[in-house]
Amino acid sequence: MFQNNPVLIQLKNQLYKKKFQVKGIVKSTSKGFGFLRVDSKTTYFIPPQNMKKVINGDKIVGSIETINNREIVFPKKLIEPFLKKFIGFVHKHKNSIYIQSRYPYIQNVMFYKYSTTIKRSWKNGDWVSAKLQKHSLCDKNNCFSIKIIKFISEKKNPLSPWHVILSKYNLEKKSPEVDFLNFFPKNIPDNNRVDLTNLDFITIDNNHTQDIDDAVYIEETNSSHLILTVAIADPTEYISVNTEIDNIAKKRVFTNYLPGLNISMLPKEFSENLCSLQPFTKRPALACKILIDNDGTIITKKTKFFLAWIKSQGKLSYDNVSDWLEKSGTWKPSNKRIEKQIFLLNKVYIIRNKWRKKHAILFKNYPEYTFHLSKKWEILNISVDKKRIAHRMIEESMISANICAADFLDKELGFGLYHAHSGFNYFNIKNVVKFLKKYNILYTSEELMTISGFCRLKRSLDILSDEYVNYRICKFQSFGEICAFPKPHFSLGLSSYATWTSPIRKYSDMINHRLIKSVIKGCKNISPPDHSVISHIVKRKRKTRMAVRKIEEWLYTNFFHSMNYDKKNYYACIIDVSRRGMSARLLKNGAFIFIPITYIHNIHYEVICKPESGVIYIKNKLHYKISDNILVRLLSINHITKKIIATLVK
């Protein structure tokens, strides 16, 4: 009876057309339109015309109006802008210049209104850093205003990938430079250093390495024990705390090893000359003498740290030493003394590696991908490399030295800079036990929360040899950390671990050097590392890791752009699963690719991707999981997002 009542119809229409306002976050799409996300269940449509007033990620107040039976968002007020500072490139069209952001979700926003104090004749494609000065919702003309604050690189500069990415993460683009003559160090007194220049120390590095920071010397005792002396370059003898060079190193934290480009932490006059353990050159060192018994056990009560002078008797390379030990190639040691050192170093590796396999945890030897570049920064080739025997020999010696440093700092100070890993998160441990039961691997929660139990589990997983299980177990683990006080390192199977063997390349190792030397010199009132320094190291490490990945992605897109990439099939390993598809890495060259659901199976609703467990079901049947090898063909390369899209080859 009320169905056709004209009064009720009129009232209903009035209520329906009534405007109301909501707060939310803008989400853009590649098709120009977007959505205002109010909460996890509520979103409203933003048409393309209205999206021109906002940027993906903006927090705004929007007015909701109903047009043609659809609720539409009209942006009204800015609460917080998403875009504050960004990297973009210059577009020149006729007499106009505008800036386009590199950020994928705001590529459609062109910034016409800009200001700058940089005096430059802008060229098409110039890379710049800019900041948002005024949002369109705060401007009476609905225009975005930006300020160009830094010129980064010309488009044609072959180093653009490095410069743009390093600028994005606020990392330095070149090694530090100082007036070396003003900083030339004082003479180092001999009376507090042991002269070991008559011993046959050797260094083993890559062929091109100039910043040599470790040397080793090994001798056998009458009881067939081995004495390993690890001598580490001593930059802290030249660089005092809070000096200009120390502050440079403290800010940079690491030597940045990028694809095809190394950016040193210290000025190269120090890292590659004055402090480097160059052959046949007398150098100051911080040394550690390590006594190792027949079964590989380090007799820690016999470990000794001391200051020394050394003179390397040979700069050897990983490849040459590996070839010689594997009885291939033409290289051979220059004399019998060097030959003896190589054999003894290999003996140290064998017994220490055997000890760690039994009592701790060994690293897996995963492949590494190396970009080989021409002098014009063109990609010539990408090689797949694994650590060879010489690399593993030096690595084992440095691990032994780091174990000794942790023990020394524990006993003498009770603090230092430690690398730690607490194993499984307490809240995940029941899920770990439940997951392992599926594979008939039986442990209790209490066992897995101890280092010994964690080590036994890792050995059980090595026997199982299932990469998917390893992946799932890693997902249950906590993250590694750097701390000022000793904690266990579950992933190494050690009670504590403190690095000190790369002070030319790592500021954290410089800190441990200073602490160890303070004890040797009998200093008083020694303080633990400041928390702010540790926090900076952690942040810098994360930024560096992300920068390396982004530069690699850029170089891979350049590499495939120069060839007929869609004419060839590649084997790849699945490394991640998301709601939209799966990511994989090409086995031949390490390139990162993405396979959308539409190229996994042609009926979208029959595909279920489970990111939390890293698996993909089709028609309720498991088809793919992380660690699976698959055959793919590349389809397209997005040169803006630097993403490579591929399809499965069935």
Q: What is the topology?
A:
Elements: H1 6-17, E1 20-28, E2 34-37, E3 43-46, H2 48-51, E4 59-67, E5 70-80, E6 85-93, E7 96-101, E8 110-111, E9 113-116, E10 127-134, E11 145-153, H3 160-168, E12 194-195, E13 203-205, E14 214-220, E15 226-233, H4 244-252, E16 256-258, E17 261-263, H5 268-274, E18 282-292, E19 304-311, E20 315-317, H6 318-325, H7 336-359, E21 368-373, E22 379-385, H8 389-412, E23 418-420, H9 429-437, H10 445-448, H11 451-464, H12 467-476, E24 481-483, H13 507-520, H14 531-561, E25 569-578, E26 581-586, E27 592-596, E28 607-610, E29 615-618, E30 621-625, E31 629-638, E32 643-648
Parallel strand pairs: 9-11, 12-19, 13-20
Antiparallel strand pairs: 1-2, 1-4, 2-3, 4-5, 6-7, 6-10, 7-8, 10-11, 14-15, 15-18, 16-17, 18-19, 21-22, 23-24, 25-26, 25-31, 26-27, 28-29, 29-30, 31-32
Helix pairs in contact: 3-14, 7-8, 8-13
Domain Cold-shock: 23-79
InterPro entries: CSD, NA-bd_OB-fold, RNase_B_OB_dom, RNase_II, RNase_II/R, RNase_II/R_CS, RNase_II/RNase_R, RNR_Ribonuclease
Protein name: Exoribonuclease II
